[in-house]
Specification:
The protein is an alpha/beta fold and about 500 residues long. About 30% of the residues lie in helices and about 25% in strands. It has helices spanning about 5-10, 20-35, 40-50, 65-80, 95-105, 120-130, 150-160, 200-205, 225-235, 250-260, 270-275, 300-305, 330-335, 420-430, 465-475, and strands spanning about 55, 60-65, 85-90, 110-115, 135, 150, 175-180, 190, 215-220, 240, 265, 285-290, 310-315, 320-325, 345-350, 365-370, 375, 385-395, 400-405, 410-415, 415-420, 435-445, 445-455, 485. The strands form five sheets. An eight-stranded mixed sheet has the order 2-1-10-9-11-12-13-14, sandwiched between helices. The protein has a seven-stranded mixed sheet with strand order 6-5-3-4-7-8-17.
Length: about 500
């Protein structure tokens, strides 16, 4: 990463402000000894701002950086694990989850971030497939195999009974394992790399203007790539992180106001739910950053018209980290864009033979940056060079990225290529529609056809023929969904993604 870019970005975001010489020395020493993972980022923050509030959650209240370091050190001792062990973390957003994650990382063990929406059978398979030594879990989660289960209440008792003896950096660095979403199959474990410097942080905060010592609410699940990345950024910024165990749109707005948060990290469906409530005055709010799935049609403009030009949309995946970031300026010009690649990232569009295609022509999206995942835990390593995202898309002449749909979602109906997401975004703009999913289903005559699953807003009425006619007016005939199914809610996982396999087939 370009050193001049890193220094300029850190200065612009308030990370090079003067400080006490001894604290600055301890801060830099912490990063040199512990690296740029969770353990090192917490230590540098505690060395520079020990009395600053690190996290505020809805049960424990404020916890300073010094207190978080003390509790995390005790947590490491209480785990009884070592380098290379895999420790499952099945906890909701809380100070306790931070202590657990950092406690595991400080040992050189690998935290495995477990989706809180997994069923008991999935937890059993996951424990075996990932060879987990322990699973630290919130007490209300059932289904964790007894031989590895460590309930949070017992773990916290151990932490309280453990002396805070200093730790040495592990001989083997920790590697965080994030599970893929599993919306179309079994979740896979992806090994995330640890940053080797300030470059990845600066690539993000150059485009998303989060500043040092900010107040940041993270509602995206911390077990998800986006929530976990936000936590890493927050520790690097020495921010105060506001957490709540369960997302509630009204409580989120209250927390943003009460704690005077300058930033909100969320997934798109959370922003949709927030938009259903009267907006309170939030004069401190400067950044709302969303990722995890595409912004539904029209949401970007509606959100900014309500809250101001504060919305940033990051497009990426567990495997590629980030591909592009859309700023408010991008979204005002092109509300459906995924934005532009940040510094150090290259996005290319290629045809089926792997050849680059010109702007405006669709193809497969490939990404190259320094934070590509290292491979899956089943032994499959990633290929060298740029990595396919699994999406089809295109670039416009200004270099903005557009995602047209998943490679495996595109259907061929009567010989025509159809992207369900384009019809989905069109229907999402209807005032009567609260949420919608459009998928391909088998068809005896045409091979495949579209089916639309629609959830209406309270009190709204809309008929099947009205849905079809709306699509017919704006799209080609082969885009019109033959099946229109009205549902009370769409099946979603804990990160807000629609679980396509759970949609009832017409």
């Amino acid at each position: 990463m370009d050193a001049a870019f890193v220094i300029a970005t850190m200065a612009r975001r308030g990370l090079l402000s003067p400080g006490a010489p001894l604290r600055l020395a301890h801060q830099l020493t912490s990063l040199r000894r512990w690296g740029f993972g969770l353990a090192g980022e917490l230590r540098q923050a505690a060395a520079r701002d020990p009395d600053r509030v690190a996290v505020i959650d809805d049960e424990r209240g404020p916890v300073t950086y010094a207190e978080l370091l003390d509790r995390s050190t005790r947590a490491s001792r209480a785990l009884g694990a070592g380098p290379g062990d895999r420790i499952g973390v099945l906890r909701r957003n809380s100070a306790g989850m931070l202590e657990t994650l950092i406690g595991v990382a400080q040992l050189g063990a690998d935290p495995v971030l477990i989706n809180t929406g997994l069923a008991a059978g999935q937890l059993t398979r996951l424990t075996s497939e990932q060879r987990l030594r322990l699973v630290v879990h919130d007490d209300d989660f059932a289904g964790v195999p007894d031989e590895v289960a460590l309930p949070a209440s017992e773990f916290e008792q151990r932490i309280g009974d453990t002396a805070p003896e200093p730790l040495r950096p592990p001989a083997r660095p920790s590697r965080t394992i994030v599970l893929t979403s599993g919306t179309t199959g079994t979740p896979k474990g992806a090994r995330r790399p640890t940053p080797t410097g300030f470059g990845p942080l600066c690539a993000i905060i150059d485009r998303i203007p989060l500043r040092g010592r900010t107040r940041l609410m993270i509602t995206a699940p911390l077990f998800h790539t986006w929530g976990f990345a936000a936590l890493q950024i927050a520790l690097a910024l020495r921010a105060t992180v506001v957490l709540r165990r369960r997302f509630d749109p009204a409580a989120t707005l209250d927390d943003l106001a009460e704690h005077r948060c300058a930033g909100l990290i969320a997934v798109p469906v959370m922003l949709e739910r927030i938009m259903e409530l009267p907006p309170p005055p939030l004069p401190e709010l400067r950044v709302v950053a969303a990722s995890g799935s595409a912004l539904p049609g029209g949401l970007a403009t509606r959100f900014m018209d309500c809250f101001g030009d504060v919305l940033y949309n990051l497009y990426g995946s567990t495997e590629v980290s980030w591909a592009s970031i859309a700023t408010p300026e991008d979204l005002r010009v092109a509300p459906d864009t995924a934005g532009r690649p940040p510094h150090g990232t290259v996005v290319t569009v290629r045809d089926e033979d792997g050849r680059p295609v010109p702007a405006g022509r669709p193809g497969r999206l490939f990404v190259h940056n320094e934070m590509l995942f290292e491979g899956y835990t089943d032994g499959r390593d990633r290929a060298e060079g740029a990595l396919a995202t699994g999406d089809l898309g295109h670039l416009d002449p200004a270099g903005r990225v557009y995602v047209d749909g998943r490679v495996d979602d595109m259907i061929v109906s009567g010989g025509e290529n159809v992207f369900p997401s384009q019809v989905e975004n069109l229907l999402a703009d209807l005032a009567e529609v609260r949420e919608v999913a459009v998928v391909g289903v088998p068809d005896a005559e045409y091979g495949q056809r579209l089916a639309a699953y629609v959830v209406l807003r309270d009190g709204a009425t809309l008929g099947e023929d009205e849905v079809r006619e709306h699509v017919r007016r704006h799209r080609a005939r082969f885009c019109v969904p033959r099946d229109v199914v009205f549902l009370p809610a769409l099946p979603r996982n804990a990160t807000g993604k629609v679980i396509a396999r759970d949609l009832r087939r017409p």
